[in-house]
Amino acid sequence: MFPIEEFRECVERIVKVFTDLEIRFHLTGGAAAVAYGDPRMTQDIDFVVDRDQLRSQLQLFFAAAPKEVFLYDERTVREAVESGRQFQMFDIEQALKMDFYPRELVEGELDRSVQGHLFQDRTLPVASRPDAAISKLIWISKGSGKSRHDLRQLMLRASAEELAIVRKHAEDRSLIELLDEVLNESDEIDF
Questions:
Q1: Which of 25, 109, 125, 165 has the maximal Cβ count within 10 Å?
Q2: What is the pLDDT of residues 65-83, one digit of tens each?
Q3: What is the pLDDT of residue 134?
Q4: Residue 104 contacts by C-beta under 8 Å, 6 or more apart in sequence?
């Protein structure tokens, strides 16, 4: 686990690649939780990227993300982009892992990206609070324990409108009972 500042150089390198190639992206996962005020440590950085834009620019993406800087397998990345599955890259210099999701877990989430402060003096596109919360809820339904804390932290500062959006999506996905269960849990340790 690392404090988010440890990821700055790595994030800046990959953000430059996406920006130069005009590929839409945003940060999600633990980085989004940090951007929304939960000063936690994380083990990787998660990105949602526009699948169609990445697919059409894939050869340029490989050229802009050289293997001297990033460790990845081109064939694996190609297959992941084609199928919409996650792929990983490893920043060799900083020894840090990045997970890329060439799909939207929450439909339209890239259209709702907001600028968030991941680093003290730098804003970057992050998943909207409701989209980040819904993503966390989906991951919880698949067994992610860390996402439980993140979801509670995201919802602590949520507006009534944001909470209503999350509840609606949870209902639509038959996850409303799970949402209520997680939101009623405590982060305190009982003795």
A1: 25
A2: 988 899 999 999 999 999 9
A3: 96
A4: 48, 110
